[in-house]
């Protein structure tokens, strides 16, 4: 499939080089959720150099919003996350993380470099469009807290509500491709819960005098996993994972409490509500069964709404991307139980929606993809220590996908003598 030439949206060599260097710098120096100070400063400085006005430190976090006012027209917001994960990198790459125990294992460095690349492209071609470009660098996505903090802090009250929000996410699909939702949800909604099971501590030699919270927790973990298997319809796509379990300090001491944290995911809010209540019921029942001295505590620590891209916008951008990348590089994305907190800025509390376009960005090198398919293996995916995006393919694709999407939404600029004619997609 021959891509349609689109000089306004395809980054020239010098811009790709700058984006690659930015990616390498971000990848070498990952910062964990809420502590992305150097990452935010680096990106904000680059955006300032491109001529954008940057509002830093939003909601008392490293999040920033960069703004390029370019005459009357729509407001388009491009969002990138900033945070890395507490994962020890095992890619063996020459530009691997230099920070022990931290890695850009979700590809947020790729998103940031692509967003900056798109901002550079749009700034360089500003004669060809009108409107307002916003680039949001969002802190703390992995903890599902950063977007909520911005929403609670009144981001749109302060800077206006955008006409569309654009975002993409690295995914284990062939590098050089993008994949759009085919209607309906693209990512699950989620709840993160912390639980404390109370027991009565004592000597290991006299368990009959104690109420063992460790046994309660062990039993609860097994029982909790039956909720998705036996209390949720398969079509709800529910997933439950107990991610932490802590109890006790010595082999000869029965502890007085056990703590666990778990995540719930599903594709409808009612399914999440029901599972949340079922978790409470199981923990209460296990405590009662063990004659616990007091009931357990269950706390909701984070949540994210179901991510459903705007159907009309998605259909339009699928066509735009096919025009700029070639139809063979635009795939259909299956719904994923992954979650995304950007929905706090698009599915608003008053029940209205800011149109969201969200697509997956393929990162797997072609050779890896072929070998895995031949041998029936899976390819390294996000959050894995060996997740290694194919930079040379994925980054230019990500820049073009964002730029073309923004240009489709922004108004066409006035024709000027000798200028490249406005792209046909650029009309509002
Ligand atoms: Zn992630
Ligand atoms: Zn992510």
UniProtKB/TrEMBL annotation:
The organism's place on the tree of life at top rank: Bacteria
InterPro entries: Amidohydrolase, Bact_exopeptidase_dim_dom, Peptidase_M20, Peptidase_M20_dimer
SUPFAM superfamilies per the UniProt record, alphabetical: Bacterial exopeptidase dimerisation domain, Zn-dependent exopeptidases
Limits of the Peptidase M20 dimerisation domain: 190-286
Stretch list, region Disordered: 286-305
Listed name of the protein: Amidohydrolase
Organism: Streptomyces albidoflavus
């Amino acid at each position: 499939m021959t891509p349609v030439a689109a000089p306004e949206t395809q980054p020239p060599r010098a811009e790709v080089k700058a984006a690659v260097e930015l990616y390498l710098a971000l990848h070498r120096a990952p910062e964990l959720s809420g502590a992305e100070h150097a990452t935010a400063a680096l990106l904000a400085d680059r955006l300032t150099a491109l001529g954008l006005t940057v509002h830093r430190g939003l909601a008392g976090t490293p999040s920033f919003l960069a703004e390029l006012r370019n005459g009357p027209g729509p407001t388009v917001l491009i969002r990138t996350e900033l945070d890395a994960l507490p994962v020890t990198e095992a890619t063996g790459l020459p530009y691997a993380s230099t920070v022990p125990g931290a890695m850009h294992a979700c590809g947020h460095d790729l998103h940031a470099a692509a967003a900056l690349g798109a901002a550079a492209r749009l700034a360089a071609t500003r004669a060809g469009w009108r409107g307002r470009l916003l680039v949001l660098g969002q802190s703390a996505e992995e903890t599902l807290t950063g977007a909520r903090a911005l929403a609670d802090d009144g981001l749109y009250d302060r800077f206006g509500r955008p006409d569309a929000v654009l975002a993409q996410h690295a995914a284990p699909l062939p590098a050089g491709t993008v994949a759009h939702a085919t209607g309906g949800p693209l990512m699950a909604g989620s709840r993160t819960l912390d639980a404390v099971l109370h027991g009565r501590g004592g000597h290991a030699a006299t368990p009959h005098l104690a109420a063992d919270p460790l046994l309660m927790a062990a039993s609860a973990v097994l029982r909790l996993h039956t909720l998705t298997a036996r209390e949720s319809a398969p079509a709800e796509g529910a997933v439950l994972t107990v991610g932490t379990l802590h109890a006790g300090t010595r082999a000869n001491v029965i502890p007085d409490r056990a703590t666990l944290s778990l995540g719930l995911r599903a594709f409808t809010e009612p399914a999440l509500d029901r599972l949340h209540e079922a978790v409470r019921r199981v923990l209460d029942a296990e405590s009662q069964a063990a004659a616990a001295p007091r009931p357990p505590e269950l706390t909701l620590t984070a949540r994210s709404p179901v991510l459903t891209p705007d159907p009309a916008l998605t259909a339009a951008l699928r066509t735009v991307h096919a025009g700029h990348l070639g139809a063979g590089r635009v795939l259909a994305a299956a719904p994923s139980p992954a979650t995304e907190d950007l929905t706090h800025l698009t599915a608003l509390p008053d029940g209205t929606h800011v149109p969201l376009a969200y697509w997956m960005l393929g990162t797997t090198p072609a050779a890896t993809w072929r070998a895995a398919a031949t041998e029936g293996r899976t390819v390294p995916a996000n959050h894995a220590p060996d997740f290694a995006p194919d930079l040379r393919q994925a980054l230019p694709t990500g820049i073009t996908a964002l730029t073309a999407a923004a240009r489709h939404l922004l108004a066409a600029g006035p024709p000027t003598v000798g200028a490249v004619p406005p792209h046909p997609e650029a009309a509002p």
